[in-house]
Design brief:
The complex is a heterodimer of chains A (489) and B (484). With 489 residues, chain A is of the alpha/beta class. Chain A has a single domain, classed as Alpha-Beta Complex (Amidase signature (AS) enzymes). Chain A is built from 15 helices and twelve strands. Chain A has a ten-stranded mixed sheet, sandwiched between helices. In chain A, 60% of the residues are buried. Chain B has 484 residues and is α+β, with helices and mostly antiparallel strands. Chain B has three domains: 286 residues, no CATH class; 115 residues, no CATH class; 64 residues, Arc Repressor Mutant, subunit A (Orthogonal Bundle), CATH 1.10.10.410. In chain B, 40% of the residues lie in helices and 20% in strands. In chain B, the strands form four sheets. A nine-stranded mixed sheet of chain B has the order 2-6-7-10-1-11-12-13-14. A three-stranded antiparallel sheet of chain B has the order 5-4-15, with no helix packed on it. In chain B, strands 3-16 form a two-stranded antiparallel ribbon. In chain B, helix 2 packs antiparallel against helix 3, helix 5 crosses helix 6 and helix 12 crosses helix 15. The termini of chain B are far apart. Classes of the chains: A alpha/beta (489), B alpha+beta (484). At the A-B interface, helix 9 of A face loops of B.
Chain lengths: 489, 484
């Protein structure tokens, strides 16, 4: 049995039965990565020591003590390059952070370690600073979609999604600011969850947009997602925006039936721009939910059309400020300057260190905040953001969840949209609203296009109702074949 | 005729144990970069968490400055690039500060003037830069230390008033024990905005911003200079340029730093990493209870209850330690007329404290306040000369021996009865014929000289007043009777 093909929960079961152990799992993973990574390029800064490091850590796992919950006993986990891991380089796939080795672990990493997980030293590829929807903006080059090596994996957590579907990772973490977990999950045919804003600590996540970012699991199936959420969720005193709400056992939501579930389908999402094949597949998925006992109705989320402009003002404004710290003074890249004065150092370091898309967003964001424009852009965007949130509040008073396609298309070709930023931005059209409203959302595989590319179904729920997402997602998953289908690489 | 219009912006370090947004120590004077962590260094991925005590202290100051504390307050990012600011933005407050619309009263000779306070808000400090020949070094220990920014209305109209404002503000904040207010250690900084206009005019003139004033004295001098400079410009028909000027403490003048062609665009926006804070009535009441009697109130009470003059009361209440100690002494002093003990407090005790670089309450007077009061009573009763008493006090603090013991042991009792002094006076008269001649010729110094001689012979114990009377009597007698 090639262990790399299994899910975390399947491996945990075998570990418990003493049918396998960490070392064996690591060994299989290493072989798999060596076989296919050169085609997929899901990882960055991969080296042999990454594997020996895993093995070494698996041997040093602290024994069970009462307050630890070693649910992930010895399972390796792959981490997106924007989540800080002590002692392992964390560079957001950007030249400006080259060589940066955080002196501390992100809270989620600390929690994963406490749960017995093994942190993989090689990080997964991403769009630089999470700016992108295709993982083409990485300073290391793009990741290739295991279902079609000429296609993108989506972004910005493209490396994590690709690694999971190609069995180069058992489970992975990504981050989602406007769809960066869900959209790559849908392009790669895996499960990706964006938690409620404040559900998971952002401490240690290198910030893109502080009011939108969340860390979330990217997994082979829904059960793995629930297990990871059990570990990483919870209030963190180091993150003032994390919320003190109890973490339920998300695994308990799995296996519940969805009879009587009230689903809403927003009509503004089923308009021109939505690929016909994707539309058909998603409609079939909604009917499947109906077969399982749910009821659905069309609703209106009237401010949907403003989501993208609001997002690209709010997110870039916050990003322009969050990325100001990358200046060559303390860490990362510092340009060699001919003139050797302060302004020159700033300009050359940031000019050479940032990629095109990063610069574009920083300039856009600074403009939106600038004197004379703040009221017209940023302030106004914040107000419309509230309206978008209120659209969802209204719907959730009557319905349990909202169901939509995750993305208007399946994976496009590498190079197809990269020259047209606005076209690229439109790929986020269905995912962005969840970040603006702060609500949880999950993407699960719901079919394939004729060309064999995965299509994702997105389910959204009201704040802190991840349990409902798991309930619905699991019911759908277990009654469809998609989650057991793998690409042939 | 021109009048000056001055506004002061004061930044005060709050003496919380840890920084504004992380758990690093705020202790002053430590090894560079030894009190830092990923949060205050602005490392990628780090997030601020508000120090509750810093907020409490801010509210305490705001209430003591009669400000309206806002129920809903938030933080904002002030974005600009500089190496002592690791995140290249400062967490500060912009449009919803903790408090606004307050005032404090300053004493001008015998009237009080109200100076408005626009706002009091909380923010974090930046690091310290040290410039060398070929490089600059940054020490991040100071980064993230909580600062209170106190902005006055442009109600100040003279450098003297500015000085009064600063000393009053410092006094209040010291009473609250929320800051050391030490300009030398950098825990209090002051910038000024100043313009001048025709007396009685409504519109404000062009203002300049003054920085780099490192003492209250420097603030006064810089404002003085600037008023002169702007007056001269306007008299010559030249315009005042809106700019930032630095006080040059060596040349004693203000120097242009850069022209403020346009204000820097800080691109303020609400800090997304911190939620807004609600300050409710309960919290305000809780903090109000921790506010002690403030200097102005104490001063009025001293004047009313103990009959102190305004001048004396002001000196005593300036530092809280002194005020409390003084009040204890005043209460314990048996006479209704408190002037003697007050004079002792303002005079010898304050000067001992100054020389020993401590407060009056920290003086190690053997036998404590009781012994001090006895000494005062002794002096009042004439048992010991005032001059002698002062030196006894000094010696008692140095040696640890109580004052009265020293007086007894060294037999320092003042000699006041003429009987014992007559002989010595006679001696001095005999020995100082020239002085007598000078005195008869009308030189009054001669008398003082002879008094001094008697004092010398009695080791300072003779009562100079009595000596003076005896001498005068004897010399006049001599005159009358024509004795040589």
């Amino acid at each position: 049995m090639e262990l790399y093909k299994l899910t975390a929960h399947e491996l945990i079961e075998r570990i418990d039965k003493k049918e396998t152990n960490s070392e064996e799992i690591i060994g299989f993973l290493e072989k798999r990565i060596k076989d296919v990574e050169f085609k997929v390029k899901a990882y960055v800064r991969l080296s042999n020591s990454c594997f020996s490091n895993l093995t070494h850590n698996s041997q040093n796992l602290t024994p069970n003590t009462q307050h630890l919950r070693p649910i992930l006993k010895g399972i390796p986990i792959s981490i997106k390059d924007n989540i800080c891991t002590e002692g392992y380089n964390t560079e957001c796939c950007s030249k400006i952070l080259e060589g940066f080795k955080p002196p501390y672990d992100a809270t989620v990493i600390r929690k994963l370690k406490q749960a017995g997980a093994l942190i993989f030293a090689a990080k997964t590829n991403m769009d630089e600073f999470a700016f992108g929807s295709s993982t083409e903006n990485s300073c290391y080059g793009p990741t290739h979609n295991p279902w079609d090596l000429d296609a993108v994996v989506g972004g910005s957590s493209g490396g994590s999604a690709a690694a999971v579907v190609s069995d180069e990772a058992i489970v992975a973490l990504g981050s989602d600011t406007g769809g960066s977990i869900r959209q790559p999950a849908s392009f790669c045919g895996v499960v990706g969850l964006k938690p409620t804003y404040g559900r998971v600590s952002r401490y240690g996540l290198i910030a893109f947009a502080s009011s939108l970012d969340q860390i979330g699991p990217i997994t082979k199936d829904v059960r793995d997602s629930a297990i990871l959420m059990n570990v990483i969720s919870g209030y963190d005193s180091f993150d003032s925006t994390s919320v003190n709400v109890d973490v339920p056992d998300y695994a308990k939501s799995l296996g519940m039936d969805i009879k009587g579930l009230k689903i809403s389908v927003p009509k503004e999402y089923f308009i021109e721009g939505l690929d016909k094949e994707v539309k058909t597949i998603v409609e079939e998925a909604i009917n499947k939910l109906k077969d399982l006992g749910a009821n659905y109705k069309s609703v209106s989320l009237p401010h949907t059309q403003y989501a993208i402009p609001v997002y690209y003002i709010v997110a870039t404004a916050e990003a322009s400020s969050n990325l100001a710290r990358f200046d060559g003074v303390q860490y990362g890249f510092r340009a060699r300057c001919a003139k050797s004065n302060l302004i020159d150092m700033y300009k050359k370091t940031r000019g050479e260190g940032f990629g095109q898309e990063a610069k574009r967003r920083i300039i856009l964001g600074a403009f939106a905040l600038s004197h004379g424009y703040y009221d017209a852009y940023y302030l106004r965007a914040l107000k419309v953001r509230t309206l978008i949130k209120q659209d969802f509040d209204k719907v959730f008073r009557e319905f349990d969840c909202v169901v939509t396609p995750t993305s208007p298309t399946a994976a496009f070709k590498i190079g197809e949209k990269i020259k047209d930023p606005l076209k690229m931005y439109l790929s986020d059209i269905y995912t962005i609203s969840a970040n603006l409203a702060g609500i949880p959302a999950i993407s699960i595989p719901c079919g394939f296009t004729k060309k064999g590319l995965p299509v994702g179904l997105q389910i959204l729920a009201k704040p802190f109702n991840e349990e409902l997402l798991f309930k619905v997602a699991y019911a759908y998953e277990q009654n469809t074949p998609w989650h057991s289908m793998k690409p042939k690489i | 005729m021109y009048e000056a219009v001055i506004g002061l912006e004061v930044h005060v370090h709050l003496k919380t144990k840890t920084k504004a947004f992380c758990g690093c120590s705020t202790e002053f004077g430590q090894e560079p970069n030894s009190q830092v962590c990923p949060v205050c260094l602005g490392f990628p991925g780090c997030l601020p968490v508000l120090n509750k005590v810093a907020l409490d202290y801010a509210i305490k100051v705001a209430l003591s400055l009669n400000c309206k504390v806002q129920e809903y307050t938030k933080f904002d990012r002030k974005n600009y690039f500089y190496p002592d600011l690791p995140k290249n933005y400062q967490i500060s407050q912009y449009d919803l500060p903790i408090s606004r619309d307050g005032f404090l009263n300053i004493d001008l000779d015998d009237k009080t003037k109200r100076i408005g306070i626009t706002r009091v808000h909380l923010e974090e400090d930046a690091g310290k830069l040290i410039h060398q020949q070929d490089r600059s070094l940054v020490d991040f220990n100071r980064t993230g230390i909580p600062l209170l920014e106190i902005v006055s209305e442009p109600d100040i109209n003279s450098p003297q008033e500015a000085h009064e404002y600063l000393t009053t503000l410092k006094s209040i904040i010291e009473y609250l024990d929320v800051s050391d207010c030490d300009m030398e250690k950098g825990s209090l900084r002051c910038d000024a905005n100043i313009s001048i206009r025709e007396k009685g005019a409504r519109e404000l003139g062009v203002k300049t911003e003054l920085k780099n004033m490192n003492s209250f004295k420097a603030v006064k001098e810089a404002l003085d200079f600037e008023i002169g400079r702007q007056t001269e410009l306007l008299n010559k028909g030249k315009p005042v340029v809106q700019e930032t000027r630095l006080w040059d403490v060596r040349e004693l003048k203000t120097v242009s730093m850069r022209a403020k062609e346009e204000a820097q665009d800080y691109r303020y926006f609400p800090e997304p990493d911190l939620p807004p804070f609600i300050i409710n009535e309960d919290k305000i009441e809780e903090i109000k209870k921790t506010i002690p009697e403030l200097p102005q109130g104490k001063m009025s009470r001293f004047i009313k209850d103990y009959g102190l003059s305004r001048y004396d009361a002001k000196i005593l209440v300036f530092a809280k330690n002194n005020a409390d100690y003084a009040e204890d002494c005043i209460k314990a002093y048996p006479n209704k007329d408190k002037k003697p003990i007050v004079n002792w407090l303002i005079g010898p005790l304050l000067s001992e404290a100054k020389n020993r670089n401590c407060s009056i309450s920290e003086l190690k007077i053997p036998g404590g306040k009781q012994e001090l009061l006895k000494l005062v009573e002794f002096t009042q009763a004439g048992k010991i000369s005032h001059l002698m008493a002062k030196s006894v006090l000094n010696e008692s603090i140095d040696s640890g021996t109580p004052s009265l013991t020293i007086i007894q042991d060294k037999n320092l009792f003042q000699i006041s009865d003429s009987g014992s002094l007559d002989n010595i006076v006679e001696e001095v008269i005999k020995e100082n014929a020239k002085s007598i001649a000078d005195y008869k010729a009308g030189k009054s110094n001669a008398l003082m000289f002879m008094v001094g001689q008697v004092m010398r012979k009695t080791n300072g114990r003779a009562n100079p007043k009595v000596i003076g009377e005896i001498l005068k009597r004897r010399l006049n007698e001599a005159q009358t009777y024509g004795t040589k």
